[in-house]
Amino acid sequence: MVDMLRKADTDTPVLHLIYDMWDTMIENVKKLVFEHEQKDIIFGSSEFFDAIHQVLESRWNKSNTPLHCMAHSLVPKYYHEVWLQKGNYGILRIAPQEDNEASLNRSKCFKKLFQNPRDLRKVYAEFGSFSMGSDYFNQPHVIDARFHEEPISWWANHGADRVNLEENVVVELEELSLDDPKLESYFVA
Hints:
Blueprint: H1 2-8, H2 15-36, H3 47-63, H4 66-73, H5 81-85, H6 100-113, H7 117-132, H8 140-148, H9 151-158, H10 170-173, H11 181-186
């Protein structure tokens, strides 16, 4: 947890990384507990880890906002097969569109940002194309760039002409640092 806080305590944009940092921290705690108890991390169970996990989840639920989930959902790397297969300790990762919590909170943000029903439908369709890697987003160079480019660069190179998400400040959200004064104006309750 301390490592996560150190990484987040910066003037650089990290909002889009918080969701993943939290999951990675929980995986690291699980590894430590299961190694100490000499149990299999994939198939074993631990009452001690379950208690710790419950505390961590409770804390996450107090500090997590739909904005974290939206920013997490806009990081192209989190949809790339290499990242998905590279989960720690054999624990597979899931893409943001497959994560129930991220999907529900992303939807809250979309509804807040796009109040016109026609615009909202268009944004959902565009996000679907992006997240599923269809249409333009299915080209090999675009898929490869998801893993290697920083999010803002990827969106500038591959999303500017294709998606309304960028036009409506959504991509700007992932550039915010946690102590950025603009963050408050984007907060979605």
